[in-house]
Every structure is written in C-alpha cells, then in structure tokens.
Specification:
By secondary structure, the chain is of the alpha/beta class. Helices cover 40% and strands 15% of the residues. It has nine helices and seven strands. β1, α1 and β2 form a beta-alpha-beta unit. α4 crosses α5 and α5 packs across α6. Bound molecules: adenosine monophosphate and manganese (II) ion (3 copies). The site of adenosine monophosphate has 10 residues, from α5 and α6.
C-alpha cells in the first residue's frame, strides 16, 4: 500500500483556516501517515501539531514555507526537519514578521487612497497570529465586506502586482533562507515551481542558485500542479539530483487546490525527501 504523505499545508499560525490541532486530525482522517505543517514564515504551530500527531498516532516532521524574493518576484522555499529553536532561523523569521507588518500598513494606505478604508484593522480581524499578517487576510476581509465576490477575485482585482492594494516588498534572498534552513539542520526545497511566471532560463538560473546555496529538494507534486507540471519537475529533479517532495498546500476546506493527503503519488524513479527524515 502506498504511504500517504502530505508535506505542505497551512494552519491559523499563518493564513490557513484550521488550528494546528484540527489540521492534524483532518489529515489523520484522510489517511495521512506522515505530515509536515509548513506555515508561511512561522514555526509557532509545530509543537502543537506534533503533540496532536502523537495523540492520533501519525508521524510528523517540522516544516516551514519561507517567502523570498528572486528575479523581482515572490518565491516560496520549503524547509523540513530543522531545529525549530535555532537562533539564526527564528531571528530570520522574526525579521520577516516585522516586514509583514510594515507592508500591511502600506497596503492599507494604498487601498484607502482608492476609497477603501479600514483594511489594516479589517485584515487583522482575520489574522489569528498578527505576526503573520498576509494578503490572504486582506482578501478575506475584502470578500467578507462585499468589495469582491470571493477571495480569488480580490487577489485578481486588488492584491497582485499592478493592482492598487499591492505594494513592493523586500523579502529575504535565496541564500539567506536556504542558509537559515540548512544551518538549523534542515532540508530546503523549492515550493510549487510551476506557479512562478519565470521563463525556462530564469527557472534554471533560480534552481542553479538554490543548489549552489545548499538547496537539495523540489516540490514535484503539489495541489497546484497539473499532470504536465509533475512530469516537467520530475525531469528537473532527476537532472539536478534533487530529492522530490509532495504536498497539498491545503489552506482550508473552501480555499484550497486539494484536501490534505489528496494529491497524486510521486512518480517512480525519484528520491522522496521523506526517505531522509
Ligand atoms: P503573502 O505571503 O502575504 O504575500 O500572501 C500570499 C498568500 O496569499 C499565498 O500563500 C496564498 O495563500 C494566497 N494567494 C496568493 N495568490 C493568490 C490568488 N491569486 N488567489 C488566492 N489566494 C492567493
Ligand atoms: Mn498561503
Ligand atoms: Mn506557496
Ligand atoms: Mn503554501
């Protein structure tokens, strides 16, 4: 029987809709036997998730999804099996938290200029952890107040580059984020590579740089990848000698590409990252 693994999901510690405990219970209910919680830029849900995983008898591995900037765009790196108390890692994540707060205030000011007031306070009401204030919380606030019909259309009309609620932000570099993960004893992976609007040449440049910095894995199977994407990144994983990872990127029952554990199996011939956990 194939092991059901999910190494990418979000809780209320970042922009997910379920608590770490509820997420673990849902994963167990879906038959997941190895889970990683990968909240954006935060590790404060890991101890809670691990405790609940022990209670329900499921394997759990520390995870995080770090926002970085590369080639002028936001890119996400996953980190696994690191020491969540490592000072350089927690210090690096804290610097992202202060940046998120500054960005949220400036997003709110920018939206106020086009006549939509009170977005900072509104978004904060949706953020259980204010340190991880996210565009997703702005989107939920704007959808709930009827500015748009749903979260996806808020992103399309207000929160992506070129739209009034989008503000430029300086995230860490590839070298910084990989350094934090590897320095804390972890394994770094490029998250959902098919989601970036890079050319093939740019993608190769990113992957070369990531590998040079000590990156070892790539997310081949993702809730947001098509069958073709899985094929493309399986080939890339083999070519670069990367381990392969797999996850749903679940955020909540009505806001996700896939439910926990409900993604395709990794293709044959790849080295699953979990073999080294
Ligand atoms: P942030 O890290 O604050 O820039 O917010 C990015 C988060 O917003 C992502 O992790 C997704 O959960 C969500 N997101 C990004 N783009 C979209 C989109 N087009 N539609 C819905 N959610 C999105
Ligand atoms: Mn998210
Ligand atoms: Mn992501
Ligand atoms: Mn994610």
């Amino acid at each position: 029987m194939q092991l059901i693994v999910d190494l990418h999901c979000h809780s209320t510690v970042s922009d997910g809709l379920l608590s770490p405990e509820a997420l673990v219970r849902r994963a167990a209910g879906n038959g997941v036997s190895l889970l990683s919680l990968t909240d954006h830029d935060g590790v404060s849900g890991l101890a809670r998730a691990r405790q609940e995983a022990e209670t329900v008898g499921m394997r759990f591995v520390n995870g995080v999804e770090i926002s970085i900037e590369w080639g002028g765009a936001q890119v996400h790196l996953l980190g696994y099996r690191f020491d969540a108390d490592d000072a350089a890692l927690t210090g690096g994540l804290a610097s992202i938290h202060s940046g998120r707060l500054v960005r949220a205030r400036s997003m709110s000011e920018s939206l106020e200029k086009i006549g939509i007031a009170g977005c900072f306070e509104g978004a904060m009401r949706f953020a259980e952890n204010p340190k991880l204030i996210s565009r997703a919380h702005f989107a939920r606030h704007l959808a709930a107040t009827g500015v748009c019909k749903d979260v996806r259309s808020v992103f399309d009309s207000y929160l992506v580059p070129g739209k009034p609620g989008y503000v430029e932000h300086r995230w860490p570099t590839v070298a910084e984020a990989v350094g934090w993960i590897v320095g804390a004893g972890g394994i770094a992976a490029v998250a959902h590579p098919a989601r970036y609007a890079f050319s093939r040449g740019e993608m190769r440049k990113l992957l070369d740089e990531f590998k040079q910095c000590g990156g070892q894995a790539i997310e081949v199977v993702s809730g947001s990848h098509s069958v073709d994407d899985v094929g493309t990144y399986s080939r890339i994983a083999r070519e670069y000698g990367f381990m392969a990872t797999s996850g749903s990127d679940f955020h909540g029952p009505d806001e996700s590409y896939a439910d926990l554990g409900r993604v395709a199996s990794l293709p044959e011939g790849l080295t699953p990252v979990w073999e080294s956990f």
